[in-house]
Amino acid sequence: MALTPFFKDIPKIRYEGPDSDNAFAYKWFDANKKVLGRPMKDWMRNAVCYWHTFRGTALDIFGPGTLVRPWEDGTNSLDMALKRTEVVFDFVTKLGVEYYCFHDRDASPEGSDVSETNSNLWAIAEKLKSLQKATGVKLLWGTANMFSHSRYSQGASTSPNADVFAHCANSVKEMLDVSKYLGGENYVFWGGREGYNTLLNTDMGREADHAAKFFHMAVDYAKKIRFKGQFLIEPKACEPTKHQYDFDAATVLGFLRKYGLEKHFKLNIEQNHATLAGHDFCHELAVCNANGALGSIDSNRGDVMNGWDTDQFPNDYRECAQAWTLILANQDGMGTGGLNYDAKVRRDSYDVEDMFYAHICGIDTWARGLRIAEQVIKSGKIDKFVAKRYSSYDKGIGKSIESGKATFESLQKYIVGKGEADQNASARQEYLENLFNGYC
Ligand code: XUL
Ligand code: CO
User: Rounded to two decimals, what is the model's pTM?
Assistant: First the structure.
């Protein structure tokens, strides 16, 4: 495959270790180095996202885009879309990343009607397939953009307009077919406009029923075409709507159970979405773990000084280290999921070099966190502490509670006989936090 010329001045990004002074090298991500018995790349399953990295211009509400992307011709044409696919694959392979993720509309433009939109998508899908074959890069997940066009301004599957629901059915049907064609390992739903701006015009119960119908149709269609990818829902609390129905992990899990969908879906947790919901990122991972629902991660960070979804590249390896202790509590980590860098360079980071620095930082942050987590896990100190903290449930009265034998009456008899509960042991938060300082 001929390389496009746009990254010719950038070397292939390789591992050089923490002492390297080369900004175009990984200091912590050593793809094949084994951590806890598995190569780092297989735990991480890094992915480049098509939208921020290749469709973002850094426009904001105060001004137009600023990023210099020499391959763009300023059109949203099919020709430009075809040419762009080659640039995307050059970038992903130069980084040594194995996966990418895209929405239908990132990769392929809408046509003049639904049929032309679908045929554009298939022209792009064929090109993507040949690039995947030539490079070995794989599709972590596909999704449909059901939030940008004005037809979605009042919702997608939760729109009060049934025609919009039908339009969305076409989009997801096509993207499921395309995801299958490209070997996609997951399929993501992020409900960008599935929420409300005012309850005065909203029948919330009816909208939830419609969303559930939509998910059931997706499950049925995937079964019909034998698409084996994992379905994922990506919670987000607000933005663009005042309140998004997929508010956080716990809300989504409750919704899935109400509508009998829980067997078919896991969650795609995004760091900055967790903070929008008023949670730590690790809180969302812990909710997933408690429900066997961790599917994948959209990695980014907010800014501690403001509240919105700034989608910056992650740089806090300590947070990632704690996140790994939760991810690795699942035997196969994220399973078919991975780390999708759903993040964008800042508006004043104009150059193509900045695309590389950003991804190197994100990948190294997670890699460094993984190395720290390995040592924390191997020390066994957290597991040992937590096991001891709950050990009153391993025997006696605690065991009778967990096994379901205890009743209010039996417990009353026990505690009245004892007169007072045993003293609590210290929860040792500072000791546990400091364990992460013991490794680098
Ligand atoms: C928006 C967001 C989306 C989803 C995919 O905040 O995270 O890009 O990841 O639709
Ligand atoms: Co995301």
Answer: 0.97
